What does this fold into?
Amino acid sequence: MFAKLKAMAGDAAGSTARAATRAKHEAKIAYLEREIRLCKERFGAEVWELYPTDRIGADVLYAKIAEEVGDYELQIEGLRQSIADLKVKTSPGGVSADKLSGPETCEEEPPSYDSLDSLPSVPHPAPAPATAPAPAPKPSPSPAPAPFVPPTVAAPPPLQGRAS
It folds into this structure.
């Protein structure tokens, strides 16, 4: 009984380690995919300025960026293979790693749609009937402000002196 409990605890620890490694690989894949996108954006900006005047330089730049992107894609493929290997490994107790991960994890890759034709058709719900928005509540009447009364100023004294 104790040996079985110990084996189950070891299996759970191994499963946790594999899940952590898988999460680390997935984060690295996301980082590399971001780097690929940034390389392509940088290439587009540089070629936009370079291509009208120096097409050979644009081809050299393309070769450089293509090599960099290819390296990133090879790293991604290696990480995906490592993730696949983690999914199939079995623990010492004979339970596969897939069985140890709970139902809250999704082990399947999402489908890749290359064109709009391959998208599954999904029925769309009928639009809700248009209703007029509820009228806004009327503000409570506030007292009217007092009218402006300018301060009184004394009349200037009459002018003394010659009258023309």
